[in-house]
Amino acid sequence: MKEKSLFSPIAITGLSMISAQGKSLRDSWGGITANGNALRSWSDDPSDNLGPLQVASCGDLPRPDDLPAVLWAGLARTQQLAALAADEALTSAGLPRRLGRTSEAMGLFLATTVCGMDKSEQFYRQYRENPERTDTRLMRRIQPYEVLAFVARRHRLTGPRLLFLSTCVGSAMAIGAACDAIRLGRVQMALAGGTEALCRLLLSGFNSLRLVAPNGCQPFDAQRRGITVGEGAALLVLEAPAHAKARGVQPIGYVRGFAATCDAHHITAPEPSGRWAAAAITSAVRESGLSPGDIGYINAHGTGTRDNDAMEARAISAAFGALGTPVPPMSSTKRLTGHTFAAAGAIEAAICLQTMATGVLPANAGLAQADASCNLPLVLEPRPARTSAVLSCNFAFGGNNTALVFSRQVAMDNGRPAKKGAPA
Predict the structure, then answer these.
(1) 3-state SS string over the chain?
(2) Where are the domains of the chain?
(3) Which of 3.40.47.10, 3.10.450.50, 3.90.930.12, 3.40.50.720 is the CATH number of 10-409?
(4) Which of 51, 127, 190, 345 supports an S-S bond with 178, CB 3.0-4.6 Å?
(5) First-to-last CA distance in the chain?
């Protein structure tokens, strides 16, 4: 049964993804669909107790030609990743990299967690060696607003700006908030997503909780041991559909539904029943106006920890049971990209959009033996599938849960794009 839509579709006209699989959307998607192993050791230093841990690093980042080498070197890695992602997203949307004062206002909705922690760690290393010769400017980059201000200044974005620090649901919430701003008429266009960089604090923190899988995560596997820490960035250019039409651009897809809940169960542990995660999923699907059977793929949060995967399996099963349709094919892609925390929602949104655009479902990489208690229709190998609507789930510390629904077109007919001549 098709639900009445409560969420006005928002056009996606630009898209980027920087990940351990590649420094562009095309390269990242190529690595993901090839099941490429992009994991590497944290360090080669034998004295480093974290060194052998496998992480998903983006490696050396190419400097954009408009940023001088001295400035580039002084930026936090989150800023560098955001710069590359913004360039690709704006270009793919047919927009200039610098909008300028003569252009209409574009909003910026961005998420991060570590901010400029890599620079503060550099400061600490200097301080330990010689307190009198430390570069105090390094500490400035730790401020969360630094990455937001940098992107806004560089691209001359004059619309509303919001920064989200809600960890693993951060960029999903940024996308949802950008859609709200467009629906309410506060802005016609927005750049939304997240950026996250590797740093020692993040890796050692999760390792101290015994939540890091030493050889890479195995989401939904019977022997799963924890997460793989990763880095990356993804940004979406969002527009009111009428605005995209007036610009003469063809949308990549549409945001059809968004929902967020918070159960406040525990500061780190997920609420075991998955009740509120399921509520986010059912709400997003119902607000989308799509029939639940239209959803052809789920990109799961699937971190690879025992508690999170078990909770998510219960939540998805309960949600689709309430929606009255079987759980569609699903996978977690975190073995391929690592867990990118605040950037995860945007990176996985890009994966969902590429799934629809290319007709390929990415695999639940790292799986050796599926956990029978999860009982999920996991995609074991990349495979072709015609998919017109998809769901992305993300969950975070503090009991925060989000769900995003995307479709290729606005009008749908029994899970397929509308017939020629039907209103779009």
Answers:
(1) CCCCCCCCCEEEEEECCEECCECCHHHHHHHHHCCCCCCEECCCCCCCCCCCCEEECCCCCCCCCCCCHHHHHHCCHHHHHHHHHHHHHHHHCCCCCCCCCCCCCEEEEEECCCCCHHHHHHHHHHHHHCHHHCCHHHHHHHCCHHHHHHHHHHHCCCCCEEEECCHHHHHHHHHHHHHHHHHCCCCCEEEEEEEECCCHHHHHHHHHCCCECCCCCCCCECCCCCECEECEEEEEEEECHHHHHHHCCCCCEEEEEEEEEECCCCCCCCCCCCHHHHHHHHHHHHHHCCCHHHCCEEECCCCCCHHHHHHHHHHHHHHHHHHCCCCCCEECCHHHHCECHHHHHHHHHHHHHHHHHHCEECCCCCCCCECCCCCCCECCCCEECCCCEEEEEEEEHHHEEEEEEEECCCCEECCEECCCCCCC
(2) 10-409
(3) 3.40.47.10
(4) 190
(5) 20
Catalogue the active-site residues: 168, 301, 339
pLDDT tens across the length of the chain (424 residues): 555 667 899 999 999 999 999 999 999 999 999 999 999 999 988 888 898 999 999 999 999 999 999 999 999 999 999 999 999 999 999 999 988 765 789 999 999 999 988 888 888 888 888 888 888 777 777 788 899 999 999 999 999 999 999 999 999 999 999 999 999 999 999 999 999 999 999 999 999 989 999 999 999 999 999 999 999 999 999 999 999 999 999 999 999 999 999 999 998 889 999 999 999 999 999 999 999 999 999 999 999 999 999 999 999 999 999 999 999 999 999 999 999 999 999 999 999 999 999 999 999 999 999 999 999 999 999 999 999 999 999 999 999 999 999 999 986 544 444 444 333 3
- Check if the beta carbon of residue 339 is closer than 8 Å to that of residue 228: yes
Q: Between 77-92 and 145-155, two packed helices, what is the crossing angle to 10 degrees? A: 40
- Close Cβ partners of 421 (under 8 Å, ≥ 6 residues apart): none
- Whole-prediction pTM value? 0.94
